[in-house]
């Protein structure tokens, strides 16, 4: 499929998908952005579909590795870890990562491979956060419901434009986070 030299093409593909969606990921555009010829692309990938496949695999594997890292207890309590994840995703806006996430989710609406990648990432996110909630003493059913609400909050809050200013936003986020952690001891 690709070797480590293809990573620049994958990174350029992500930058373009964040900017203009999967439709914008074109060999000519990427070559121009990288300052190289199209021939360099074809030495690393057989075609555009192979690049898109590499991008999905990279995104899927990276997101799954990230949630596994973020949910590892490493001496923290489950509640502390949940709070740290909320803080990570609500206080530090990574606009490019969110643009990539949204573009891949849009792509998944019409492409089976993209849909499978998104489903794998969502399953890993819900499983790992659900395990943290179980570790707080919640039943499996309660933990799964909280994990679902947790991700609805994480992604939903990043999409809202609040007119109340940064201080009010921080208060709303803190209050919401407290409610997500209410039943976890």
SSE blueprint:
Layout: H1 7-20, H2 27-34, H3 38-42, H4 48-71, H5 78-91, H6 95-108, H7 112-135, H8 140-159, H9 165-181
Helix pairs in contact: 1-2, 1-4, 1-6, 4-7, 5-7, 5-9, 6-7, 7-8
- Unreliable stretches (pLDDT < 50, length at least 5) are none
CATH homologous superfamily of one domain? Answer: Tetracycline Repressor, domain 2
Distance between the termini: 47 Å
Q: What is the residue-averaged pLDDT?
A: 90
DSSP, total strands: 0
Q: SSE order, as H and E?
A: HHHHHHHHH
CATH class of one domain: Mainly Alpha
Q: What is the percent of helical residues?
A: over 70%
CATH architecture of one domain: Orthogonal Bundle
CATH topology term of one domain: Tetracycline Repressor, domain 2
Beta strand %: under 5%
What is the molecular shape? Answer: elongated
> Number of helical segments?
9
Biggest sheet overview:
none
Task: State Rg.
Answer: 19 Å
What labels describe this entry?
76% helix, elongated, 9 helices, mainly alpha, Tetracycline Repressor, domain 2, 185 residues
Q: What can you tell me about this protein's structure?
A:
The protein has helices at 7-20, 27-34, 38-42, 48-71, 78-91, 95-108, 112-135, 140-159, 165-181. It has 185 residues and is mainly α. The termini are far apart. The mean pLDDT is 90. The longest helix has 24 residues, at 48-71.
């Amino acid at each position: 499929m690709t070797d480590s030299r293809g990573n620049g093409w994958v990174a350029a593909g992500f930058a373009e998908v964040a900017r203009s969606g999967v439709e914008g990921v074109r060999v000519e555009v990427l070559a121009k952005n990288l300052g190289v010829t199209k021939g360099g692309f074809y030495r690393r990938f057989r075609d555009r579909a192979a690049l898109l496949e590499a991008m999905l695999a990279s995104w899927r594997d990276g997101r799954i590795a990230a949630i596994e890292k973020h949910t590892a207890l490493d001496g923290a309590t489950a509640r502390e870890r949940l709070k740290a994840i909320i803080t990570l995703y609500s206080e530090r806006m990574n606009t490019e990562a969110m643009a990539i996430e949204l573009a891949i989710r849009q792509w998944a609406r019409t492409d089976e491979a993209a849909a499978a990648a998104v489903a794998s990432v969502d399953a890993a996110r819900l499983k790992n956060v659900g395990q943290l909630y179980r570790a707080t003493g919640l039943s499996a059913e309660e933990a799964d419901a909280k994990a679902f609400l947790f991700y609805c909050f994480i992604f939903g809050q990043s999409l809202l434009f609040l007119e109340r200013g940064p201080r009010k936003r921080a208060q709303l986020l803190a209050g919401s986070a407290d409610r997500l952690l209410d039943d976890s001891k």
